[in-house]
Amino acid sequence: MLFTSYTFIAFLCVMLAAYFLTPKRAQWITLLVGSYVFYAFAGAWYFVFILFTTVSAYIISRLLHRVKQKEDEYISSVKDTLGKEERKAYRARSKKKRFNILLWGLVLNFGVLAVLKYTAFAVTNANNILALFGKEAISVPSLLLPMGISFYTFQTCGYLIDVYRAKVEPEKNIAKLALFVSFFPQIVQGPISRFGELHEQLVAPHKFDLKNFTFGVQRILWGFFKKLVIADRVLVAMNTMLDAPENYKGAYVLLLVILYSIQIYADFTGGIDITIGIAEAMGIRLAENFDRPFSSKSTKEYWRRWHITMGSWFRDYIFVPISVTRPMLRLNKALTPKCGRLVASKVVAYTARTVTWLATGIWHGAGWNFIVWGLLNCLVIIVSESFEPLYKKFHDKFPRLTSSSAYGVFMSVRTFLLMSVIRSLDCYRNVPLTFSMWASMLTFKGIGDIFSGGALELGLGVSDFLIIFIAIAVVFVVSKISDIREKLYQRPVLSAALCVTLFISIIMFGAYSVGYDASQFIYNQF
Amino acid sequence: MKKRIITGICAVLITALLLVILNGLVVPKYTDNAEGLLTREYYDEAGDHDVIFVGDCEVYESFIPAYLWEKHGISSYVRGNAQQLVWQSYYMLEDTFRYETPKAVVFNVLALKYGEPQSEAYNRMTLDGMKWSQSKIEAIKASMTEDEALIEYMLPMLRFHSRITQLTRDDFKYIFNAKKVSHSGYLMQKGIVPMTSAEEQGRNLRDYTLPQTAMDYLEKMRLLCQENGTELILIKSPTNSWAYWWYEEWDEQVREYSKENGLAYYNFIDDVEEIGIDYNTDTYDAGVHLNVYGAEKMTDYFGKMLKENHGFDEIEHSQAVASAWNARVEEYYKERNE
Do residue B4 and residue A210 have CB atoms under 8 angstroms apart? Predict the structure, then answer.
């Protein structure tokens, strides 16, 4: 059930009504039932996987808790009789036991994800190697990827790690845990929530609050606006270029790269706006996933503003743990006397970062393009970091230039273009083709064609480009106004007028219905 | 709080009003293609017809109700549309029986060749003009192609919103009322384009069995007429272009069905000479459809058959009905002789 389908809109209306009409104690049950109904639309077979994740997470988290509880009880009972070293040794043994349990949980859940998502990719690559040796190819299995599996697996594994780290108390009621795993607005494309932030809200009673509801509906409309008016309209031109990339080289590649950035931004942030809006209407606050990423002045900053919950997940559950693993600590120790503390710590950090970005790339999809995309992002960040002293010198030498707003705009445009170019790996989905397109882009051939009517042969007319341009301008202006909803809430007439305009704009200028390829949200695929 | 609620209600009302206006603006006006307006015109004349014609383009280009009245005193209406599928004819008939009970229903069998939904554009032209009823909903459900949605028939602007950037003067002119295009369902074509490919025949088919879905709806149509005491007459109009070829094998199946169920079936393809149709002067599109001159001959011929074989020789009408039909005849000739 796509967010932009009529079925979903009808489902959402019923769901919101049911949620507020249910007695408060049982609201979370309505939410769970609704989430499962939503999931059932994707396919009954997928239930097996989400139930497996829920049940395994429940068992593992309870086991982790029991071992921890035993440890604490034992330590407190022998506090006066056992020595510090013995207590420490006991704790270490208990921690190892918990780690082994956690490992089981992670292997089981990531294992399912890996098998379903990466088997075909692995077999295809194995076949390429076998072909080199003249061996017969293995048949490539075609496995269906359950809806939202990357998101709920990561969210659930985050929960297990938090339980292991004793950051959260494990849920005693499996149905309540099931709701955390399957909460319908966020299951398809995130944000990836933390148990500590979301769980209590999901099971807590919520009375109807006009302000929350209004804000929620506004946010949902805003999401639909971005998705239907901008993303799906831009998609038409992109598809024309991607269907025959050999016909769209030179400056057209640059156009595609820019259009894809606009499209993915409107698509993904639109989807997240709908998700957050639905939750908000029910009184549940989800983590924000974007913070004006295209205004970033560096790649590092960009990744702090784009897909924030994914970035922080990888930071907290992969980057940080890897940085303090024994091999890393040993590497640091070994390098410090030879290269100095700074270089040693940088080597450790860069290694951990490379692994993290490799994982990020793989998470995005089973393809070399995603792996190269992850590694290129990592390379750019590492190079930027390495050049930081040089930048500082430059900034110190030309303080007036570097503090000017023009320089700020230059840095933002530079970051936007760099990120857009790297992102096109996801667009062409073929590494050699992408590289050849980048080479072609640098020739800027055909730039005249684009402006002398070529752009109008991409499936979009003048009115389409005008709609896209105005819609982007609206998004830009809105992003510049801080606390816009609070300000509007103080002026209900203006707020209502803008909502009506937004609604009518979506209906009239949205790219939907017969004639438009009803595209799913890009991040649904992950 | 009170102010917010009032503002909210006003916003909803304004939105509804804007949607009504915008809906009126963006729905197609079919000013270049009058076929999209045929269905809705029926409701202006609904009630008290002796004969109702149902079917595809072959009925609304072959039978002229005004001419049938003038020559034979039989009142009729053509509920036909371009590529009107059998189930659409069935539901349109169901809809018709809500307004009147004709003595006979004449169904053109060419559409029996289709067993599945065909084209969104034709669906919209046929169904959009129907008044809302269970029949319309069922007709939509049976006709929708893969990408269509029922709600887009309920709120046509959801389908046609992209026309907002292509509005013409006609969209404003006919925002809430459509142009009248037919003469009791007959769409007049005065052009003359002789048939150029008389020797060409339809391509060979792998299977000549008429689709079961189509035959099922024909049976439903028969039962519906039976329930209402209306005679169902099956016909095949005389045109037989290679593009819309009527095969002997199909004809055999319809003949067998009509025999089994005691229905009259007339295939006019072989009666062209007797009817007096000349394919050099009586078609407007090289032999695919009859023009007004051909349709007059066909109507007259069929009127005689109705009188001779189906008891239409002794029908009487009130003065009011007669004067309404005389006015329609006048209108008909006005356009014909323009």
Answer: yes
Which one is the CATH code of B34-148+180-336: 3.40.50.1000, 3.40.50.720, 3.10.20.740, 3.40.50.1110? 3.40.50.1110
Interchain pair A508, B22: CB under 8 A: yes
Residues A198, A284: Cα–Cα separation, whole Å: 8
Report CB contact under 8 Å: A467, B1. no
pLDDT at B2: 81
Q: Which of B147, B110, B104, B57 is nearest to B251 (CA)?
A: B110
Contact A182, A36 (CB under 8 A): yes
Encode pLDDT of B90-113 as tens digits.
999 999 999 999 999 999 999 999
Which of the four pLDDT bands, split at 50, 70 and 90, describes residue A519?
Answer: low
- Cα(B125)–Cα(A10) distance, rounded to whole angstroms? 27
- For B161, the closest of A6, A507, A518 (CB atoms) is A507
Binary contact (A513, B158; C-beta < 8 A): yes
Q: Which of A172-181, A385-394, A462-471 has the lowest mean pLDDT?
A: A385-394
- State pLDDT tens for residues A182-223: 999 999 888 999 999 999 999 999 999 989 999 999 999 999
| Residue among A207, A470, A6, A239 at smallest CA distance from B152 | A6
Q: Which of B1, B2, B3, B4 to mutate to test the interface with A (most CBs of A within 10 A)?
A: B4
Distance CA A196, CA A199 (A): 6
Nearest residue in chain A measured CA to CA from B150 = A6
Q: Spell out which residues of chain A touch residue B4, defining contact as CB-CB under 8 Å.
A: 210, 492
Query: Which residues in B lie closer than 8 A to residue A511 (C-beta atoms)?
Result: 162
Check residue A46 and report its DSSP letter.
G
A510 contacts on B by Cβ (under 8 Å): 161
Per the omega criterion (within 30 degrees of 0), is the bond before A191 cis?
Answer: yes
**How confident is the model over B213-218, as a mean pLDDT?**
96
Asked if residues B99 and B44 have their Cβ atoms less than 8 Å apart, the reply is no
- When CB atoms are compared, the residue of B1, B152, B164 closest to A513 is B152
pLDDT (tens digit per residue) in B243-300? 788 999 999 999 999 999 999 999 999 899 999 999 999 999 888 899 999 999 999 9
Q: What is the DSSP letter of A285?
A: P
pLDDT digits (tens, 9 = 90+) for A108-154: 999 999 999 899 888 988 888 888 888 888 888 888 888 889 899 99
Query: Amino acid letter at A474?
Result: V
Distance from CA of A271 to the nearest CA of B (A): 21
CB contact under 8 Å between B18 and A499, yes or no, is no
Query: Concatenated DSSP letters for B106-173?
Result: EEEGGGGG--S---HHHHHHHHTTSPSSHHHHHHHHHH--TT--HHHHHSTHHHHGGGGGG--HHHHH
Task: Look up tokens 């959801």; give the residue.
Answer: B158
pLDDT score, position B16: 94
Collapsing DSSP to helix, strand or coil, B233 comes out as: strand
Instruction: Give, in order, the Cα–Cα distances in Å from A507 to each of A473, A510, B19, B163, B314.
Output: 19, 6, 9, 12, 56
Contacts of residue A8 in chain B, CB cutoff 8 Å?
Answer: none
Q: Which residues contact B328 (CB under 8 A, 6 or more apart)?
A: B65, B66, B69, B183, B184
Q: Tell me the C-alpha distance between A164 and A287, whole Å.
A: 22
Phi-psi region of A429 (alpha: psi -120 to 50; beta: other; left: phi over 0): left
| Domain coordinates in residue numbering, chain B | 34-148+180-336
Radius of gyration of the CA atoms of chain B, in A: 21
- The whole-angstrom distance between residue A218's C-alpha and the CA centroid of its chain comes to 22
pLDDT at A516: 64
How many CB atoms lie under 10 A from the CB of residue A385?
Answer: 16
Between CA A515 and CA B147 the distance in angstroms is 9
